[in-house]
Each structure stands twice: as structure tokens, then as C-alpha cells.
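Tutorial, part two.
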Amino acid sequence: MNRAEILRYLRTSSKTEDERLLSLIDECCEEVNACVKPKTLHRIFDCEVTADSLIIGDIVFKSKRLADTIKGCRRVCIFGATLGTECDRLLRTYSATDITRSIVLQACLASKIEEVCDHLEDVLIADGMSLRQRYSPGYFDLDIEENRKVFEMLELTKRIGLTLTDTCQMVPTKSVTAIIGIEND
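Running the prediction step on this input gives:
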């Protein structure tokens, strides 16, 4: 995991020389790497992009900013990624017993899920795809409720064990869904 990114999540200078903090980050990174079981699922869809929507078959994602981000794309990758349930257990345990470790662990897990998402993008690029920036439900004007459509399209609960609460929060919590425009055909 990227220590500078973890420090950024902790809102600390990447040039910090605090040995206790750096040691705690290293310990948490080891713990994360030992317990996470990342799972991803992605599919490529043909799409239509209008001024304020992404349309895939009969499913419409309403968002002007998403449409601006993927304008000109005729295909998109939609994916789900999770670090697994063990992360939530660790966070609950440390939140009750060691708040400092819990905060550092939270930053390490955030870095790890980004690493998983970045790896998926690397795989797509290696397959010859030119990608736009990923965009997730809950960002800007793409309502978090749109996660319901993503879950339905990918069958995330059945396939990788990712569930959605009534308020559209994902469980396990260290999970991501996103849409990525594909520039080339």
C-alpha cells in the first residue's frame, strides 16, 4: 500500500518523521494484507450518453456530471469491488479497543480498496482499453440510490457477497461501485 496516500487520508504530511505513526501504519498495512480478501466483478456494456444521462439498454443513470465525464464513449465498464467482511470486523474491534489504531486502519483500508480499483483499471488498460475517470454513485449529482441499478446489473450480492442497505450503503463498508467510460471501440 502507498504510505503517502495513507498519510494523506490521515491528513498528515507525507514528509512526517513520526516513527510511532509510521510504525503503526506499517503494522496496520501488514494486518490489512493478511486479512483482506478482495473480490471484483466487472462487465462492459454498450451505452448511449445524452446531455444529462447514461443509458444502458432500458436502464438510465441520471447525472449531468457523469454524462460530461463519459461524453463520446459508446461503451462503459461497470464494476463492484470489496475487501471483504473481515475488514469490518477489524474496524469494529479496534473502534472499541484502540481508537488510534482504528483511525490508521481506516486509512490503510481506504488505500487498499483504491489499490484494488486501480488494479482493475490496469487490467482493462492491458486489454487495450482507453479509460476515462471512474465515477461512483454518491458523487456529485449521481444519486447514491443509483447503486441499486448497479447491484441489479452485476448481481453483486450473488456473485461477490456485496450487499446494499436500505439507505444504499454497501456492506462490507470497504467496497466501491463505479462506472468508467471506455474511449476506444
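The chain has seven helices and eight strands. In part three we will examine how such features are distributed along the chain.
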